[in-house]
Design brief:
343 residues, two-stranded antiparallel sheet, mainly alpha
Length: 343
C-alpha cells in the first residue's frame, strides 16, 4: 500500500470536507444578503460585524435545539434519511478536479480525490442515491405533507435527470471522455474553446436541470413552504433538519463546481496557461480561478431564487418531459450530425 498516497488523499478529503461545510454555512449568510440587496433591505447585521457570525449562531442553534422524533415515525429510517442525504452530497466532490497539482520537494500533491474515467457516471449514481435520503425521510415521518414532498422530490429528480443525462451524452461526443479532469484539460489553452461555446443548448439544459436537482427555486416544489409547510423535512428538528438544509447548500456548491468543470474551463482561464509561472504559483492561481467561477454560479442560483416565482407542479412536469427531454434529444442528434458531416 502506498502510504504517502493514502495520506495525501486523506488530507485532501479533510480539506474538501471543511471547505464544503464552510461554504454551505456561509452560503446561508450570502443567501440572506443577496435577498436583502434585491429587496432593498439590510439583511443579517447583528451577530458580529456585518452579521458575519450569523452562520455560527445558526449552527449553535441547530445543535442545541430540542431533538424531537415523532412517536408514530419509523425511528431508524427517520434518522437515516438526513444522514444519507448529507453523505451523498459530500461524496459527489470526490471526482472534481479543484486545481492543478502542487509540488513539494519533488512530491506531487494532486487536487482531486479520484480521477475516475467514468467520473460523470459516478456523479449521476451518487446523486440518484441522494434521492433515497429525501424519500426515506419523508416516508419515515408518517406525515402526509412530508410524504407528498418526498414524492414530488423523487418524481422531479427522475424527470430532470433524463434531460441532464442526454445533455452529457451530447458533450461526450465532443470530449470522448467522462473523466472530469480530461474534460477540464480539454478546454485549456488559447486555441481551445470552453464547452459552453461548443454546447450552448446543452449548457442551458444542464443548468435548468441542476436547479431542479438541487430543489432550488423556481423548482422548490418538494419543500414549497406555502403549500406543504416544509415538505419532506416538516417533522425534522435540531441537527437532522440542519443536515437536510446544509446538504442542499452543499449540492448547490457541488453543482456549481460541476457546471464550471464541464462548460467553463474548470480551473483554466484564457492566457493564464501561457504565462511562465512556477508550478505551485500556477496551482494557487488555478484554485482561485476555479472558486471565483463557483462563487459566481452560487450567486446566480440565489439571484434566480429571488427573481422567479415557483412553478406549478404541472408546469414543472411539462417543462421536464415536453420541453427539456425533446430538446436534449434534438441536441444529441444535431451534435452527432455535426461531428459526422462537418468536423
Amino acid at each position: 500500500m502506498d502510504w504517502s498516497l493514502l495520506l495525501d488523499k486523506s488530507i485532501l478529503i479533510f480539506i474538501i470536507f471543511l471547505i464544503s461545510l464552510g461554504i454551505a454555512a456561509y452560503a446561508t449568510y450570502g443567501e440572506r444578503k443577496v435577498a436583502a440587496f434585491l429587496q432593498d433591505r439590510i439583511g443579517p447585521d447583528r451577530a458580529g460585524p456585518f452579521g458575519l457570525l450569523q452562520p455560527i449562531a445558526d449552527g449553535v442553534k441547530m445543535f442545541t435545539k430540542e431533538e424531537i422524533i415523532p412517536s408514530a415515525s419509523d425511528k431508524i429510517l427517520f434518522i437515516l434519511g438526513p444522514c444519507l442525504f448529507m453523505m451523498t452530497a459530500l461524496m459527489t466532490s470526490a471526482v472534481i478536479p479543484w486545481g492543478k497539482s502542487f509540488n513539494f520537494g519533488g512530491h506531487e500533491f494532486h487536487l482531486q480525490v479520484a480521477d475516475l474515467n467514468v467520473g460523470m457516471l459516478y456523479i449521476f449514481a451518487v446523486v440518484s442515491i441522494g434521492g433515497y435520503g429525501i424519500m426515506i425521510g419523508g416516508w419515515a415521518s408518517n406525515n402526509k405533507f412530508a410524504l407528498l414532498g418526498a414524492l414530488r422530490a423523487s418524481s422531479q429528480m427522475i424527470s430532470y435527470e433524463l434531460a441532464m443525462g442526454m445533455s452529457i451524452v451530447a458533450m461526450l461526443l465532443f470530449t470522448n471522455t467522462l473523466s472530469l479532469r480530461e474534460i477540464v484539460d480539454g478546454q485549456a489553452g488559447d486555441g481551445n474553446l470552453w464547452n459552453v461555446v461548443r454546447q450552448p443548448l446543452g449548457f442551458i439544459i444542464f443548468l435548468i436541470c441542476a436547479f431542479a436537482e438541487c430543489n432550488r427555486a423556481p423548482f422548490d416544489l418538494p419543500e414549497s413552504e406555502s403549500e406543504l409547510i416544509g415538505g419532506y423535512h416538516t417533522e425534522f428538528s435540531s441537527m437532522k433538519l440542519g443536515l437536510f438544509l446544509f446538504a442542499e447548500y452543499i449540492n448547490m456548491f457541488i453543482s456549481s463546481a460541476i457546471i464550471v468543470s464541464l462548460y467553463f474551463g474548470g480551473y483554466h482561464f484564457p492566457w493564464i496557461d501561457g504565462l511562465d509561472l512556477s508550478q505551485n504559483l500556477a496551482a494557487v492561481i488555478s484554485v482561485v480561478i476555479f472558486f471565483a467561477k463557483i462563487l459566481f454560479f452560487i450567486f446566480f442560483f440565489m439571484w434566480v431564487r429571488w427573481t422567479l416565482p415557483r412553478f406549478r407542479y404541472d408546469q414543472l412536469m411539462n417543462l421536464g418531459w415536453k420541453v427539456l427531454i425533446p430538446l436534449s434529444i434534438l441536441n444529441v442528434l444535431a451534435t452527432g450530425a455535426w461531428m459526422t458531416f462537418v468536423k
